[in-house]
C-alpha cells in the first residue's frame, strides 16, 4: 500500500493551505472506506479530491503517513452515558454495533491487517480506537466502583482487553450489524462475568 510521494531532498510535512489539507485527509478516509487499502494510493486520492499531486507531495512522505494522520480524525468510540448500571453502560458502549459500520469505522477496519506491518498505521489505530476505548471502559469500571462494587486492577484490565478484542473482531472479521438482543447477550455472557456486580 505504501506509495512514496516525495523526491529525495524535497521538503515535506509543511501544509500551505489548511483547507486543502482538510480536503485531502477527508478524501483519504472516504476513499479507503470505499475501495479498501489495496486500491488506496496517491493517484486515486488526487482523482477523488481534484487536488494537484504537488499538494500531496508537500505534505506527506508516503501514503501510510497520510492515511495515519487521517485515521486520527476518526471517532468510532461513543461517549458512554451513565445509565446507572454496569450492564447498561457496557450496552451503551457497544451501541454502534447495532447499525452498519459508518465511514470512519470502515476506514479503520480497512487498515487493521496492514497495521501489523506499519508503525504509522498502528499509531493511527492507537489514537483512534485503542486509547479512546481504553478510556471509555475505564470510565465504566470507575462508575461501577463508585456505586459500591469492588473492582480489582486485574478485572478492569481484563475487561478492557476483552472489549478491545471484540472491537477488532467486529472490524476485521464480522462487521454485520447485531440486534440489540445480541449485543445484550454478548455483554451478559462475555463481559459481565469478568467484573462482579454484587
TrEMBL record:
Keyword line: DNA-binding, Transcription, Transcription regulation
Matching InterPro entries: Homeodomain-like_sf, HTH_TetR, Tet_transcr_reg_TetR-rel_C_sf, TetR_C
Domain named HTH tetR-type: residues: 18-78
Gene3D superfamilies recorded: Homeodomain-like, Tetracycline Repressor, domain 2
Highest taxon, organism lineage: Bacteria
DNA-binding annotation, residue ranges on this chain: 41-60
The name this protein goes by in its record: TetR-like C-terminal domain-containing protein
Organism of origin: Klenkia terrae
